[in-house]
Specification:
Layout lengths: L4 H12 L3 H21 L3 H20 L3 H28 L2 H29 L1
Helix pairs in contact: 2-3, 2-5, 3-4, 4-5
Length: about 130
Amino acid sequence: MSLNPYVKRYQQAQVATLTPDQLLLMLVDGALLRAEQAEAGETAEVRRTALDKLRRIVAELVDSLNVDVGGEVAVGLMRSYAALLRLVARAHATDDPAALGEVARRVRTMHDLWHATVRKAREEED
């Protein structure tokens, strides 16, 4: 389904105005949605489509890391994201319910940790 070009421009403008923490939360929210869709998908095609979208979101998270600024924290996140990408690839290749469940569990944990981290950082700013 193709989006109306005006809707697409509006969405791009919305994303362009997000703060870094809002963009991060949008990505982890999208990752959780896709992981849950993959886990609950009724057909292999639905599950694989959700996993493909999840893989692109995690790749975006990897691309957003700056090791020069983030140091060891960024390196640790990169390793975690790489492990998640390997698990997503295995779930995609095997369509194994256990692998799909593990993907959803790990993404749920990542989602909750990022939300808690951003919430704490915002509280400390106030």
